[in-house]
Write a structure and sequence with these properties.
The protein is α/β, with parallel strands linked by helices. The chain has helices at about 5-10, 45-60, 70, 75-85, 100-110, 130-135, 155-160, 235-240, 250-260, 280-290, 310-320, 335-340, 345-360, 375-390, 405-410, 440-455, 455-465, 470-490, and strands at about 15-20, 60-65, 90-95, 115-120, 145, 175, 180-185, 210, 215-220, 225, 245, 265-270, 300-305, 320-330, 360-370, 395-400. The protein has 18 helices and 16 strands.
Amino acid sequence: MPITLLYTIHMKKVMLIYPPGEKYQRAEDRCQINIEASVANALRACNDLGYLAAILKKENYNIFLKDYMSERLSLDKFKQDIQHEQPDVIFISTTNGTIFYDLDIIKQIKIIKQDVIVILKGALFFNPDKELFSELDLTNVDYIIGGECEFIIKPLLEAHYNNKENLKNIQGICYKINEEWQINIITEFVDDLDNLPFPDRSLMPNNLYINPINNLPLATISTSRGCPCSCIYCISSLISGKKVRFRSVQSVYEEIKECYEKYKIKDFFFKSDTFTINKQWVLDLCNLILNSDLKGKINWVANSRANTIDEELLQKMKQAGCSVISIGFESGSDESLEIMKKGTTVAQNIQAVKLIKKYKLKIWGHYLIGFPWENKEHIEATRKLIFDLDTDFIELSIAVPFKGSELYKMVYHDIDEGRAVLGKDSFEYSTIGTKYLSKEYIKQVRKAILLKYHTRPSFILKKIFDKNLTLPLFLNYIKNGFRMINNILFK
């Protein structure tokens, strides 16, 4: 390749952004939660943008990264930055709930800078069908990424600037030929996760991603990808594969250490579909932490399943700094758990909570209602389990039939106007309701359960008399309490 062409390509400016607007979990392809409408969920770091920044910096691209959403920056500020930075490429992470808003943002981008290349990334574009392209106005989008963007961005930009014929060889993208979208499906996933650089946190607003339990900065660290489970409401095994691909414990430890030493971050969320899916891997990581200078200095949260924990594991996790375990209990009905292919039982959920409480770890319980087969008895069983388990934090969501999920296929004919799943999140019903219950009933039941749970004197007193309570944390509880009540009663 001529040297002049190399210089031209490598000096391109790439703008990596979350657009201004409501706070969504944009880096979470699985959950995509509306943070502002949630009760207890915390905003996580923009790791996808951080990964892309680290990768493209190595290729000498000029990087501008901005999380307008989390920084509460205005649309006018975003437009001013486009005018000032004059990017050659703009990359945007979208979600199922924000897709229409984001496409409107992109339309405005093209008015400001018509020649900018716009890349849109989102889980809803994983191996999409042609129908999706008729439901969305993608006129102003140049490329779509539906796979793991960290492995796609470099070859995509190389193909765009060097030889567009190579676009056909990149799995997980959609691109145009004569204004017609071409879809490159994903047939395999990259196993070597250790080869990825750490997210470039020097460009990320780390102080905005807060652990709601202690009000300190929280770094998200991806420990594995892929899920062997078959839950009908989840698209994780679809977009990440059923094979679990682990990073080495050494790689994870080195990222923790970098966050602690370079960015002074002591709190972590270990992102994986099920952190405890491989007991020996978790024990190895815990032992590495316990035998290092980080022992007793870090605090972390991780996802689990009710059937993947035992006393040995919990004891070791507690020693290594684990303070909270997040579990999707989903339902208090064994019938519902079986139909949704959760792979756990109500008895296992109860036993898991007993074990976790024994080791004095906090529990974040997640539940789902509104499945098409559910009646009042199913909902009541879930309500009863929520109060019986009495976990420290809960989130009660409405089942969303994301495109590609088995649940979507189950309710396809009941979806309002065919396209109503798009633009919805797990707090805004996207179907006509269940076979027996209206969507308005489901929404009201959710509100009633959440309000009663969080206003119980026993719940409030437990927070007040927590031995780890500090004044900043107490004020944080008050702030989140007002947010919760506002969301429940008025949103």
